[in-house]
Design a protein that fits this description.
The chain is mainly β. Helices cover 12% and strands 60% of the residues. The protein has one helix at 3-27; strands at 39-50, 54-56, 59-61, 64-76, 81-94, 97-113, 118-132, 138-153, 158-170, 187-200. It is elongated, with a radius of gyration of 19 Å. 33% of the residues are buried.
Length: 201
């Protein structure tokens, strides 16, 4: 089982646990869910790893670490379901190359409270991705994003969160300058662990 399968299963487990928690809160007269707004803006940063094989002038590599920065907006309705939009920037350095990956796209969101202070969120999205490696290659592709996050509310309007995120992008055809076998898929897969701040309004 690869990390994308584990992440998808964690999203499913999280959604089921929130459903169960909200059911308990509905049945209990002593539990009061805190009042929060439905819209959230978050800024996240953290390490990321390109897990797919990358071909560079200095050789080919897997599981190379870099840094990822994200800006996310979400709007969640009373039942916990909603929509969002993400902008991501990933920068990863190799011995003779530096790769930059951009991603922007909408997502389907599910969020809910695990307690009065803890809030979780899961997202599945699809968007446009740009690939750049120091002038050797510039490609555009379609990306699929999974993420799950856990937030601690400092106040009703501000929180801090940690997020596990995966983005897989397919560019089509072969890499223009470096490539492997003829039947190898031209794409980039990465996973990131981020910490950030959330603002509710």
């Amino acid at each position: 089982m690869n990390y994308r399968s584990i992440l998808f299963l964690s999203i499913l487990t999280f959604a089921l646990s929130v459903q169960a928690q909200e059911g308990d809160n509905t049945r209990s007269t002593n539990t009061v869910k805190p009042k929060t707004s439905t819209q959230t803006l978050s800024f996240d940063v953290g390490p990321a790893w390109i897990t797919s094989r990358m071909y560079t002038p200095g050789g080919d590599y897997t599981w190379t670490n870099g840094i990822e920065i994200g800006l996310d907006y979400s709007c969640v309705f009373s039942k916990g379901y909603g929509f969002g939009f993400s902008i991501l920037h990933n920068s990863t350095s190799y011995p003779k190359a530096k790769v930059k990956l951009e991603y922007a796209g909408p997502s389907f969101v599910y969020a809910g409270f695990l307690s009065s202070r803890w809030r979780g969120m899961a997202e599945i999205g699809m968007g446009l991705s740009l690939f750049h490696d120091q002038g050797f290659s510039n490609e555009t592709g379609l990306g699929l994003k999974y993420s799950t996050s856990l937030e601690y509310l400092l106040t009703k309007d501000i929180g801090i969160n940690m997020k596990l995120q995966s983005v897989t992008v397919y560019f089509g055809g072969k890499q223009k300058h470096y490539g492997g076998d003829d039947d190898e898929v031209n794409g980039v897969a990465r996973v990131a662990f981020q910490l950030g701040a959330c603002f509710h309004f």
